[in-house]
Task: structure prediction
Amino acid sequence: MKLWLIMLFVMLAIIAGGLFLESAILKTTNQISRALNDIKEAVRNDQWSHALTSVHELDEKWSRCKDAWSPFIHNHDLDTVTMHLARLKAFLEGTDRGSALAEITNIEIQLLQLRQQEVLSLENVL
Result:
């Protein structure tokens, strides 16, 4: 009987941890998406310094999230977002509007894929 209770407790802990991680991922990706929208508007309005400052802040936030999520999410997916952020910084420093907007779109797509992969669904479980 003790074994069953221990197994039940472990299963509940795993489920609770998964739900917490899913919630954290959704919350953070939504915040990052809002920040990207702000950066996109700054680029469209030729506010390069504001956009660059926002990207630096976003990069710091992403670095913290990446470290916390790396045991749970494929490092390739995390590294892809990091790479796109680095390219976005370079395009903003060079005031290249088209390329900067394209990189923002790439980051948004990568975040969307990350959300879809990590959300608990029947498709992801099977």
Residues 2-44 form the longest helix (43 residues). Residues 73 and 118 are 8 Å apart (CA to CA). The chain has a mean pLDDT of 88.
